[in-house]
């Protein structure tokens, strides 16, 4: 090696060491935000960023409570290939007149937030203010359901998918797909139109299972439920087939075509997502709409527990995990958060947390989970209700007050979105086990209506105040507090 090249390289190394020592290399933490569709990801990220930038009061976020957060701002993200999280657009929706909920997550996106802070360590404070980049990565939780596919071939996936679709609760919804499938011979020549029809029918079945409020099933492939930028692409045009006793299929057969596409889906869609995005996360919050499942009944709760188990499988780093063939994830802390706690009176917030802890505990036992630390909490990133009391039959009941969204109903009443109402949502049971085994409150079933966002408020300085929240500060502290020590 010529001397000059050698010394150049050494010079580079020395320079970057110098950069590091003088603080020019800012540490960063990649924070994953995930959860199934409509669990609250977009609302959470928008509220988190707004609270930090606006310097909101966050008593349980130590760095803020101790006055050590000096400045927070957005910066261009480092990854050019990932779309930016539309923070400004989402905030504008929430500040609209009337305020609207922002458009939900449909694909992966990213946002870089930089925090300037004073360290708690004396010697670090002498070096001036510290900086930390927080790279927030928002992605659909449905995509995590695909990890197990990497371990199974097309034949096994087809068998499992067919078996699941023949279970009693699903059979009815799967009927149109089953009817077409029964006419198909997998040894027939590959036919693009037929592949398209089967794939559409299979997707319709998956979507309907997911939308069924009494089931909320989440079955892979994840991109069939949440296609992101791949909507309509041939990579997603496949479906399970019944081998009908055949062991081998000729090249050019329908089976061979579907098998090839299934494998392409794994190698071009699933694997790159886990390798390029998931495996690079440092911290993760998984948002869970526990109340929607409780509202749906026991089958919905069972499906939610199954989904949490599968999601936790992705974070498991033990010897038998599917990761052995891939890159190891480096996530060391996971927060499981039950969202939309503002649908309950505050006396039920701890109960909601306890129910999620029970669900998570069972899911972790099932997934033989080890690895990252798991924390559980109940929160509302944006509180759309306030609390009050109502009298019914001589009894005083704690209730919540807000604007139910237009079209929401309770009993025979349909709301128009313009009027405030006090609603008694019911109490969650003190025993979390009872909630999971299907229970009814003494006042009947729990009823949750969706509320419109709260009216935005301006500060005396003229800028918008962050929206009220429930326990958002605890979520922030658990996710990144230690980075700001
Ligand atoms: P995503 O699909 O995970 O991005 O879900 P969103 O963040 O778009 O949330 C879906 C819907 O849930 C919103 O449109 C709201 O109706 C509701 N929602 C989300 N977060 C909250 C919250 O903190 N409080 C209330 N009341 N509703 C919420």
Topology:
Layout: H1 3-21, E1 28-35, H2 41-53, H3 62-65, E2 69-75, H4 87-94, E3 109-117, H5 122-126, E4 130-138, H6 154-165, H7 168-181, H8 192-211, H9 222-225, H10 254-276, E5 283-288, H11 290-296, H12 298-315, E6 333-338, H13 349-366, E7 373-378, E8 386-392, E9 395-402, E10 409-410, E11 413-414, E12 421-423, H14 432-436, H15 472-480
Parallel strand pairs: 1-4, 1-5, 5-6, 6-7
Antiparallel strand pairs: 2-3, 3-4, 8-9, 9-12, 10-11
Helix pairs in contact: 2-4, 7-8, 11-12, 12-13
Bound molecules: guanosine-5'-diphosphate (GDP).
Guanosine-5'-diphosphate (GDP) binds at residues 35, 37-43, 101, 104-105, 339-340, 342, 380-382, 384, 450-451.
Description:
The protein is an alpha/beta fold and 485 residues long. The protein folds into two domains: 3-139 and 277-382 and 470-484, Rossmann fold; 152-271, no CATH class. The protein has 15 helices and twelve strands. It has helices at residues 3-21, 41-53, 62-65, 87-94, 122-126, 154-165, 168-181, 192-211, 222-225, 254-276, 290-296, 298-315, 349-366, 432-436, 472-480, and strands at residues 28-35, 69-75, 109-117, 130-138, 283-288, 333-338, 373-378, 386-392, 395-402, 409-410, 413-414, 421-423. A seven-stranded mixed beta sheet has the order 2-3-4-1-5-6-7. The chain has a three-stranded antiparallel beta sheet with strand order 8-9-12, with no helix packed on it. A hairpin with a 2-residue loop joins strand 8 (386-392) and strand 9. Helix 7 runs antiparallel to helix 8 (192-211) and helix 12 crosses helix 13. The longest helix is centred in the middle third of the chain and has 23 residues, at 254-276. Mean pLDDT is 89; it is low at 1-23. The protein binds guanosine-5'-diphosphate.
